[in-house]
Amino acid sequence: MNGAALRPLSIGEILDGAFTIYRRNFVLLFVTAAVLFAPTFAVRLVNSQFVYFAVSPLEALAIVALIWQTSELMLGRRATFGSALRVSLQKLPLAMVASAVSFALTFAGYCAFIVPGLLITARYSTVMAVVTLEPRSLRFLKRAGILSSGFRRKALVVTLIGGLICWLPPSAINVGSRFYMTAHAVRFTVGLRCKWIVIQWLMYSTVIPYLEAVVTTLYYDLRTRKEGLDVQLAADAVLDVGTMPG
């Protein structure tokens, strides 16, 4: 997909398009996620809930990088680890704030009998994409709410299905391993714990790139539907061609 090929997508097309980008660029996206998530999982070796909570917002660094790479690939541009890292470092303070605020709102919503949490999930489904891809994104909550307005059922379904696809396999492995350890009285030693954290790191680095590809594809779908982004990019491409020498 490139900028000129952007168009309104169905729910299935968003999920399938995100998977196509994920599959074709798996090595780049996996390596980016693995490198940038490594510090977070290294801290988990400390076995301190306080330390883990303190550094967890740093996951925003990897999320911004993955969204940026997915965006570049969707627009037909060359995505690199270096460019994604530069953007994520520039956006990191705001991304950490956005991640913490959206998490707090969503958590509070789900604590209030589920439904408010679903509404908040739908409303702010593209917050991190807004922070990453738009130059003036200080009002990220308002902007994400504007984009999702009129399409919140779709945004909710896409977000929930994408999350289910990503988290079902790791969750099944986690539950299965704990059941096996309990059934066979396996001691959770320090060495075993380290191995398990490494496995979690690799699983996380595998599934998160797809989830961020879904978010990015949804973001462009909403902008295409509400703002005619496909027309804008097509016009820009024509103007660029028209100004080429010769």
Per-chain topology:
Blueprint: H1 11-24, H2 26-44, H3 49-55, H4 59-74, H5 81-111, H6 115-123, H7 127-133, H8 140-148, H9 152-183, H10 190-227, H11 229-242
Helix pairs in contact: 1-9, 1-10, 2-4, 2-10, 4-5, 4-7, 4-10, 5-6, 5-7, 6-9, 7-8, 9-10
Task: Report on this structure.
The chain has about 250 residues and is mostly helical. The chain has one domain (about 5-230). The chain is about 80% helix and about 0% strand. The protein has helices at about 10-25, 25-45, 50-55, 60-75, 80-110, 115-125, 125-135, 140-150, 150-185, 190-225, 230-240. Helix 4 (about 60-75) crosses helix 10 (about 190-225), helix 5 (about 80-110) packs antiparallel against helix 6 and helix 6 (about 115-125) crosses helix 9. The longest helix has about 40 residues, at about 190-225. The radius of gyration is 19 Å and the shape is globular. The two termini are about 30 Å apart.
In short:
This protein is mostly helical. It is built from eleven helices and no strands.
Keywords for this entry:
mainly alpha, globular, 246 residues
The radius of gyration over CA amounts to 19 Å
How many separate domains?
A: 1
Low-confidence parts: 241-246
Task: Give the N-terminus to C-terminus distance in angstroms.
Answer: 28 Å
Tally of helical runs = 11
Strand content: under 5%
Q: Helix and strand succession?
A: HHHHHHHHHHH
| Structural class by secondary-structure content | mainly alpha
Shape estimate: globular
What portion of residues is helical?
over 70%
Major sheet size, sense and barrel closure: none
**Total beta strands:** 0
Mean pLDDT: 85
